[in-house]
Design brief:
single chain; 6 helices; 4-stranded mixed β-sheet; globular; alpha/beta
Length: 152
């Protein structure tokens, strides 16, 4: 875990532990083992990464960078943008912690090969995300899209 922007810890004091718990759960659910590095950054840095690696000149909530196969078992890196994540949680009526859990699970699943480019892929990936989060006591991350914020 690398925290570049202190607002992450202001918003969620146990941000590193929470993210680690979710990453482990996502790896277990997808039957993968290995290490993941998570970068907690801001929109400016995230925008630069998105431009450099995806040719998109805007920030985004989470980016995943799969590592090539390696003897250390490192699966890749994930970066999260504070301002985008905070705004999305607010807009979607989710707690910051629950939105963070969802984005970490989402990012880890990308690292191990899941995607959502087609409806079938999205259905599989979203189902696995729901399963991971339910196992951690978090609500359905897609409930807000259905008009139910899923928060209790």
């Amino acid at each position: 875990m690398e925290i570049e922007d202190g607002r992450w810890e202001d918003a969620e004091p146990d941000v590193a532990a929470l993210a680690e718990e979710v990453a482990i759960a996502a790896l277990e659910a997808s039957d993968f083992q290995g290490s993941v590095v998570i970068l907690f950054t801001d929109d400016v840095a995230q925008q630069a990464l998105n431009l450099q690696f995806r040719a998109k000149d805007k920030s985004t909530n989470v980016l995943s960078f799969p590592a090539p196969t390696n003897p250390e078992g490192h699966l890749g890196d994930i970066s999260l943008a504070f301002e985008t994540c905070e705004a999305e949680a607010r807009e979607q009526g989710k707690t910051f912690a629950h939105h963070l859990q969802h984005l970490v699970a989402h990012g880890v699943l990308h690292l191990v090969g899941y995607d959502h480019e087609t409806d079938d892929e999205a259905e599989i990936m979203e189902g696995l995300e729901r399963e991971i989060l339910a196992g951690l006591g978090a609500p359905d991350p897609y409930a807000a899209e259905r008009g139910d914020n899923g928060e209790s």
